[in-house]
Structures are given as C-alpha cells and as structure tokens.
Amino acid sequence: MMLVVASRNENKLREIQKLAPDGFNLVSLRKLSITVDAPEEGDSFIQNAISKAIFYGNLLMKPVVADDSGLVVDALGGFPGVLSARFMKNHPYIEKMKTIIKMLKDKEKTARFVCAAAFWNPESKVLLCCEGSVEGIISEDIRGNSGFGYDPFFIPEGFDKTFGELGEEKHKISHRSRAFKQLFENLSKMV
Known about the structure:
The chain is an alpha/beta fold.
C-alpha cells in the first residue's frame, strides 16, 4: 500500500519508514513536490494530525499518514505544546532550547514529548488516529547531535542521556515510534 507521509521533514520520514511494516511504501510531500502547507489550527496534537491527514489526502486523493508532535513542559503549563514548531518561528532550535532552559530557571523540569499519528483514506473514508508519549525531563544543557528539534535537551525517563545522544535507541522509545507503531498495527489489520 502506498502512503503519503504528510511531511517534508526528511528526518521525520526516515523515523516513520523504520516503523512501517512490509507492504507499506511511504513517499514524502517533498518527493511529490507538494509545497502547500496544511492548516494547523487545532488545540491538540490529535486535531492537528487529523487536519493534516485529511487536507493532504483530499488534495492528492491518496491515503495519507500525518502526525503532529511536540514538547509539553509541565512548569510552563504545557507550553510549547502544539506550538512547538512555531515557537520562535524562523529561529534555530538551539535558540528555542536555550530560551526554554531560561524559562525553567528554578522551576520543575518534568516534560513529555507527545505525538499524534493519523491516517486518512479519502476513497474509503477511513480515519484512524493514535497517540504516543514519552515522559522525561528537560536537561540544563544541550547535548548530542542525533535526532532533530528539541531532542538535544530532552532526557527520557530511565535514561541519563538526551534524545540527541541516544541515536538509534531513541527510535525504539520515542513518542513518534509509539504513535506510529499503534497506527501501523491497526492499519495492518485492515489491509
């Protein structure tokens, strides 16, 4: 089954490809030369993932998987949450992380990464959505060159290294891995 991954982020595409079972052929928006952005106006990761899946599915008239994910920091009332990618737009993630570290000075550092993964098939009108999360803390320093986004300052529960330091180990426990494993498991039962 061919699935369009509603992303132009090649790092995200690689993560999702590693999770896809045999028989699923994934193609990115970049490969299809799609440059239009889907609206992300929801108040939750689930709303945004579903919105993106439906938008691109209906645009392309092909089955689509989409996700919305982000960092939820308890001491900041869940911020940046659904605004994770848009927080300090056009600034590199190193600056975003430094700003959040400053915001957390003398505060609790508990946080989680959350990912909602959605599937939409415009032909059959089948919609599925799954959510995964991983608990952890925000490091006081930025460490590691693996991963992307906020990975270099998030330490998952049970580890002393950041996602940015864990490399391939991250893919086994990440929020995206948890959400897409569930989604692909459900999809596999349907095809």
